[in-house]
Amino acid sequence: MVTIGVDEAGRGPLAGPVVAAAVVLCKPRPSGLDDSKKLSAARRAELEEKIKRRCRWAVGVVEPDEIDRLNIFGATMLAMTLAVGALCEQLAHDEDVGEVLVDGNLTPHGRRPEWCWPARPIVGGDALEPCISAASIIAKEHRDRLMREAALAHPHYGWERNAGYGTPEHLAALREHGPTPLHRRSFAPVAQLQLL
Question: Where does a divalent metal cation bind?
């Protein structure tokens, strides 16, 4: 039986996808795992490389139009489901999922029809469970990379620095240049601009 850790990145930004990662840790696991928000960018990048090289992992990405259609909670549950499903495709036929540990107080169980794994929510799990810590690192690094790439096509918003969050720089650019296709139209600061 394997244990899968799941976490997401990007619930709060005004732009870009929500990304979930699922990880089955290797033995021995990479040392220094912690909540991705507590790690420096350099340490996250180093751990991401170790996790990707030695452990099994997958990501699920839900784009802004789907976030607007489902709402951010539904999109997060979908991203988690996609990540775990993709990871399960990598498991050997004789490996069963014992449990999916999900950061937070809710899981996709009963919320997504495709979810078929035993799941346990753990509040603060990204700092408590190493497999969730690993997932938080993979999710954050993957999403940050997507936003840096998006910044090349949309340079006014500072996404390479703010990852799509509603910083003063991003809000000022949004007022001046308007929303892009990567903006979440259902999020208040973007929706309010559309009413003007």
Answer: 7-8, 103
What's the domain range around 145?
A: 2-195
Q: Rounded CA gap, 28 and 126, in Å?
A: 19
Sequence-distant (6+) residues with CB within 8 A of 107 are: 80, 100, 115, 119, 120, 121
Residue with tokens 């751990």: 47
Integer angstrom CA distances of residue 67 from 92, 164, 170, 192: 32, 14, 19, 17
Q: Structure tokens of 48?
A: 């991401």
Burial category of 128 from C-beta neighbours within 10 Å (exposed 0-12, middle 13-18, buried 19 and up): middle
**How much is the pLDDT for 196?**
46
Please report, in angstroms and rounded to a whole number, the separation of the first and last CA atoms in the chain: 55
Residue carrying structure tokens 């949309």: 154
Give, in degrees to the nearest 5, the angle at Cα 61 between 58 and 64: 170
Report the binding-site residues. Answer: 7-8, 103
How many domains is the chain built from? 1
Q: What is the pLDDT of residues 129-176, one digit of tens each?
A: 999 999 999 999 999 999 999 999 999 999 999 999 999 999 999 999
Q: What is the CATH number of the domain that holds 191?
A: 3.30.420.10
The amino acid that residue 131 corresponds to is: C
Q: Distance between CA 122 and CA 124 in Å, rounded?
A: 6
